[in-house]
Design brief:
It contains 15 helices and 8 strands. It is of the alpha/beta class. The longest helix has 45 residues. Strands 3-2-1-4-7-6-8-5 form an 8-stranded mixed sheet, sandwiched between helices. Helices cover 54% and strands 12% of the residues.
Length: 420
Amino acid sequence: MSELILVVRWLLLAAELALALPLLYLLALSIGAALADHRAHKAAARTIGPDAAPPARFAVIVPAHDEELLIGVTLASLAQLDYPADRYTVHIVADNCTDATAAIARAAGAQVHERTDADNRGKGYALAWMFDVLATGETRYDAYVVLDADTVVAPSLLRALARGLATGALALQSHNAVLNADESATTALRWMALSLVNFIRPLGRNALGGSSTLTGNGMCLTPQLLARHPWQAFGLSEDYQYYLTLIASGERALFVPDARVNSVMPTTVRQLQAQDIRWETINPDARGWQRRIAWCLFADGLRKRDWVRLDALAELLTPPLSALVAGCALVVVAAIALLAPVEFAVSALLCALLLAYVGSAFYLLRPPAGVYHALIHAPAYVLRKLWVYFVLRRRRKHTSAWVRTARTTPTTTTATSGDS
């Protein structure tokens, strides 16, 4: 029996080591994010007067499929942009629409491009088509900004992105935040999860010399970049696919925390699960592609001593937050059951690392009080996420086609450029 317990304790230590690697990586990103945020506040305090650089010309692209309930709110938000009106144009891609999306967009003054293609449906195809239309058009743009059709943007969005372009960046990502964080426990917990993925991690990765990911909503790409790397991402996670393609090709994306876009999150458990399935699902072909590109990132990163590629690989291999929470809980329980003080001390340290990572979002973003109150629902939230990640996303019916998430209409068309 003693030999069996010894083997179990060694297995427990191996599991704790496996958890320690991603948690130490996430802690490093959290520290990097905190330092970058501190530097940004000091730089903002020294900045006096308007931007010196001439304003860049933007094409704001909004792919929309039957979005008549939400497109008006998005367009009203874009009408409040604090940017010269002659330096940006809103382009609505009415993609295989059967409702009044196109008519509403035209009435609001946007340029509407109607696309009908029953075989090639989805955001990836709509973006590739729109990028080609703009590249061959008469107007020359400095950059294309991609927004979802349920987005409320901060008035300072384009000014912040223009400053990012002035640094020489060819791919940029805005802070994709949650608009209705205090509407329900579901949206509050979604705020916490997305703040870590969409703010802490990209800010920290940029601070440590890595690249931001691209989340699709609020991403900004230059025509020069698209000429070098044409858009060929058509899967259920087309933005992440394109991001990995860029990194594997030696490019880097800049995170612009002051450029803020706000999305409405599901308010019910059923809506949340539908969205989670869509976000987490990877079809079989894409799984094979991710394995191949992961190997390329590893091999090229080592051969070229390229931290950007290796950091992207670390991001790709980092387990979701729900799995890390469950893993930490399990090793704590196992250490207590085995009466193993060393293993328990290690498990307690792992929990501290996890809390430091999660706490960084609360420290830097100062969420509304509802987010703190919603933490009591976190265990149930984690269990649902695990069910989606390990069971539902692998079912055949979820890997073949995009499924819309039921959403509510935003209650406001304005968003500040500050914290949540």
